[in-house]
Hints:
Order of helices and strands: EEEEHEHH
Structural class: alpha+beta
Helix content: 25-40%
CATH architecture: 2-Layer Sandwich
CATH topology: Ribosomal Protein S5, domain 2
Amino acid sequence: MPARKLALIATGKRKTAIARAVIRPGNGNIRINNIPLEVYQPEVAKWKIMEPLMLAGDLWKQVDIDVNVKGGGFMGQAEAVRMSIARGLVTWFKSSKLKKLFISYDRSMIAGDPRRKEMKKFGGPGARRRRQKSYR
């Protein structure tokens, strides 16, 4: 009797947003924080999340994906969800062809983006801006 997969957890991060995708055998249900992908708002974020699904073809209809995402803004969360789904699909189906497809489309789907907010320094209100001098 072959071993059946129960579930797989994949993570994705973008800025301060962290997404955990739980992938199980199923029939293509995708939920983000218990909200079905079909009714997820805003629309821009929904299309960003759907990119790995459209690239994978009908493969994703064999699994159910539940994503829990915290932190960041709505677009950072969308990119974190997108990464967790892409990584999860590659691991679940053990497909190097799928991984190459995702990387050729957008490397940040698998590899991630290391950019972070620059730290605020003393002498001004932000990372680079300084207070003006008025004695000249």
